[in-house]
Inverse folding.
């Protein structure tokens, strides 16, 4: 055990039998509770097993039966305490990843520097993480399984098996937005492990005990552990009281923790928006000073965070919090500049309404798409760009797409929006003049456009805020519910617009006077705001 005899372990790490471990992992039962944690027994908290996913319980019990510690940890414990339905269930254990893999047939190890076990149950994944040592990468650096990985896993359903249309497929893509862009480094795990001559582990820079693991976490409310051995909750840093008081508090020195990982500022905003927690003063204070550090975070990760902020059911509140805390400036600088110059304008009100609609869809388990979200987020800035062109060209598709591309060029260095979503939102913008001026058979083709529904939804929102004609929205509603003969008649009538009469003609006629209301009309000198 002397340091002198230690050597770096260079052959593939062998699996340790449970009783061979020398990492001082505490035994599974709570008899060996750590000195520093406060243990809240089952009758001292409100977490009931009936609200834990059966799959997560299966994983916890199997680990426990094999003699390992097994805890639920992170957001799921916090949400269970709050009476909310957790988004996912994360498990923390003292079993090494290879040991976890041996226990579950439907398991894959992912990640290089810090390996995690993903246990698959159909489309659901229970993530099992070995306790991190202080030298381990941040929890936030955990890899997300790729679509291929999901497909490959034995017993896993095909990721596309229940998709019926492009929107649903795209919505599913939200689940692993970084799958193909995540930066994975080559890493030799064996170099992190110091063993003695007999192969016994003396020190492991990657895997540790629960006492190490807890200090790696961000907020106190995210650092509670639910022990399957006796259903108690282990609390090292006052998270239990903080959840009860709905208070968000960083573990450790806030400035240090933000510098270590600036994304924690966005996470603070997200939890404030999602949970309605108040951010404790010492945790809130550095945000305004340090927000610029977010510019140094990989844009792929910020895309991931942006989706979590806006597409998980509390987007409208996230927008308000980001604005209030000065974080919008770093994430979406052109939107921030636009709303600063045109507070309460029609495009901003439309954005908020669009986010509220999206929140309602999420709550109703309907698909949502990043393409629509980013169309809303850039709508104001796109209008500003359009208005740089001569007025006579504002409705030309070329002008509109140039403006969209310019707005996206400002965003992309911060938030790397995947190409397929950019193509989607370009289509939505390009459809607007076609939707506003339906002409004969072309209207029938527009109806068949793969992006018609998203484009129409945008048109409808614009009309709601006086930026498009309500009559034309009604005309398209009729078109969508009409049978083929009625459609042909409606589109024919629109061929002679504005003299065609009916909703189309009337709408087209009224639209004439308002057409300059595209893009961001409503801000700047425009009407509609
Ligand atoms: P939700 O899943 O509801 O969005 P969450 O708290 O579970 O919230 P996740 O991103 O799923 O958030 O992360 C799981 C846990 O990992 C967190 O609760 C926290 O303990 C830890 N964690 C995640 N990101 C970080 C980070 N950037 N720094 C430190 N710990 C983190
Ligand atoms: Mg979570």
């Amino acid at each position: 055990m002397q340091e002198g005899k230690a050597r770096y372990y260079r052959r593939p790490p062998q699996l340790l039998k449970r009783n061979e471990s020398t990492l001082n992992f505490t035994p599974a039962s709570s008899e060996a509770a750590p000195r520093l944690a406060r243990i809240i027994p089952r009758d001292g908290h409100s977490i009931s097993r009936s609200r834990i996913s059966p799959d997560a319980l299966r994983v916890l019990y199997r680990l426990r039966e094999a003699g390992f510690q097994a805890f639920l940890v992170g957001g799921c414990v916090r949400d269970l305490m709050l009476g909310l339905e957790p988004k996912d269930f994360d498990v923390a254990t003292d079993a090494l990843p290879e040991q976890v893999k041996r226990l579950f047939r439907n398991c894959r190890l992912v990640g290089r520097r810090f390996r995690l076990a993903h246990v698959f149950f159909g489309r659901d994944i229970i993530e099992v993480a070995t306790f991190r040592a202080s030298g381990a990468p941040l929890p936030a650096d955990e890899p997300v399984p790729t679509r291929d990985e999901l497909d490959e896993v034995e017993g896993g359903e095909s990721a596309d098996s229940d998709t019926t249309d492009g929107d649903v497929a795209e919505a599913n893509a939200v689940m692993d937005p970084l799958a193909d862009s995540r930066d994975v480094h080559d890493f030799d795990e064996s170099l992190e492990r110091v063993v003695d001559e007999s192969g016994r582990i003396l020190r492991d820079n990657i895997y540790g005990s629960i006492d190490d693991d807890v200090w790696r976490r961000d907020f106190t409310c995210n650092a509670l552990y639910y022990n399957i051995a006796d259903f108690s909750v282990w609390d090292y840093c006052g998270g239990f009281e903080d959840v009860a008081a709905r208070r968000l508090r960083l573990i450790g020195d806030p400035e240090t923790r933000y510098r270590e990982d600036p994304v924690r500022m966005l996470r603070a905003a997200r939890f404030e928006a999602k949970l309605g927690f108040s951010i404790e003063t010492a945790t809130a204070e550095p945000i305004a000073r340090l927000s610029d550090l977010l510019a140094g975070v990989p844009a792929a990760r910020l895309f991931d965070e942006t989706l979590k902020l806006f597409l998980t059911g509390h987007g409208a509140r996230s927008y308000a919090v980001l604005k209030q805390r000065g974080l919008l400036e770093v994430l979406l600088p052109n939107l921030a500049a636009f709303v600063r110059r045109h507070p309460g304008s029609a495009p901003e009100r439309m954005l908020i309404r669009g986010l509220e609609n999206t929140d309602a869809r999420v709550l109703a388990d309907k698909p949502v798409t990043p393409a629509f979200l980013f169309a809303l987020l850039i709508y104001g800035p796109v209008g500003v760009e359009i208005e740089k062109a001569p007025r006579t060209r504002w409705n030309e598709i070329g002008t509109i797409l140039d403006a969209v591309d310019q707005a996206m060029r400002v965003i992309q260095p911060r938030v790397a929006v995947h190409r397929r979503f950019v193509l989607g939102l370009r289509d939505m913008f390009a459809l607007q003049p076609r939707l506003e001026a339906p002409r004969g058979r072309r209207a029938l083709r527009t109806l068949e456009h793969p992006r018609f529904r998203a484009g129409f939804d945008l048109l409808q929102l614009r009309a709601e805020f006086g930026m498009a004609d309500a009559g034309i929205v009604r005309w398209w509603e009729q078109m969508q519910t009409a049978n083929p003969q009625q459609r042909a008649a409606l589109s024919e009538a629109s061929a002679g617009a504005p003299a065609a009469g009916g909703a189309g003609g009337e709408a087209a006629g009224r639209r004439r006077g308002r057409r300059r209301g595209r893009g961001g009309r409503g801000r700047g000198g425009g009407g509609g705001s």
About this structure: DSSP finds 23 helices and 13 strands in the chain. The first helix runs from residue 54 to 65. Confidence is low (pLDDT under 50) at residues 1-33, 142-187, 498-529.
